[in-house]
């Protein structure tokens, strides 16, 4: 790379990062307003470093909501909406996102996927949606936590701080709350995140806020509007998650000073 090209690359990265850091702390769409504390992230060194270059690689693993979750199609799911939202916010950095998982998959299944795909993708960010299947089946919470900690430890041994990990807890559901001890799984996810150096994005808390403020309530949506409401829910989750990620990147910049 010539000296001029290297200089131009550094200048472009600097301008991009400066524009990101100048963004207001709350950048989500007003219609998708979420509690401020749910959108505050710890420093994300991997994302910060990626935004200083030309691409941001994201690996998503999870169960049903990553694949469709009642939406109108794959493009409406929160992972692909997240890719689109981030691509708009961090351009000219390219956002590459790959999704793995399926309905009914558990943390142990996801850990195997991460072991197989992590070395190939070399992600700057992993978003791991889990806990719903475990809670619905009443699987041992300790096994879920062990799967998380083991997977993150193996990843850290290979990637160090070049990969940030965000755990996403279950979506808020009155039915799940009434038929499973979901709080135990949420508690253990918090413990697993803290113990492994990962972060927790509380989808449960954000969705509960939308339900309690009569913003989005998928369970009580009329049948004729259920798909449209699911699309709206996934879009709002994508905006909230994008804000969480960019907050972490901004804090990652400060952390490295």
UniProtKB/TrEMBL annotation:
Signal peptide limits: 1-27
Keywords recorded for this protein, A-Z: Hydrolase, Signal
Entry-linked Pfam families: NonGDSL (PF25182)
Gene Ontology molecular-function annotations: hydrolase activity
Protein name: SGNH/GDSL hydrolase family protein
Organism: Falsiroseomonas oleicola
């Amino acid at each position: 790379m010539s000296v001029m090209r290297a200089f131009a690359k550094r200048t472009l990265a600097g301008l991009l990062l400066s524009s990101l850091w100048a963004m207001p702390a709350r950048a989500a769409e007003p219609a998708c307003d979420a509690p401020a504390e749910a959108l505050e992230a710890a420093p994300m060194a991997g994302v910060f470093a990626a935004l200083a270059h030309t691409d941001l690689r994201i690996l998503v693993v999870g169960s049903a909501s990553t694949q469709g979750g009642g939406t109108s199609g794959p493009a409406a799911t929160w992972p692909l909406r997240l890719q689109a939202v981030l691509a708009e916010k961090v351009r000219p950095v390219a956002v590459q996102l790959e999704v793995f998982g399926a309905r009914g998959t558990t943390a142990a299944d996801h850990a195997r996927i991460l072991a197989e795909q992590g070395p190939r993708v070399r992600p700057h960010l992993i978003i791991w949606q889990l806990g719903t299947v475990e809670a619905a089946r009443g699987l041992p919470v300790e096994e879920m936590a062990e799967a998380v900690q083991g997977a993150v430890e193996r990843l850290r041994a290979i990637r160090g701080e070049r990969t940030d990990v965000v755990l996403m807890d279950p979506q808020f559901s009155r039915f799940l709350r009434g038929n499973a001890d979901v709080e135990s799984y949420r508690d253990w996810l918090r413990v697993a995140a803290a113990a492994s150096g990962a972060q927790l994005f509380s989808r449960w808390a954000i969705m509960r806020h939308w339900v309690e403020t009569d913003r989005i309530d998928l369970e009580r949506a009329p049948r004729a509007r259920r798909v449209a409401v699911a699309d709206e829910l996934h879009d709002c989750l994508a905006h909230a998650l994008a804000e969480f990620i960019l907050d972490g990147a901004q804090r990652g910049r400060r952390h490295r000073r």
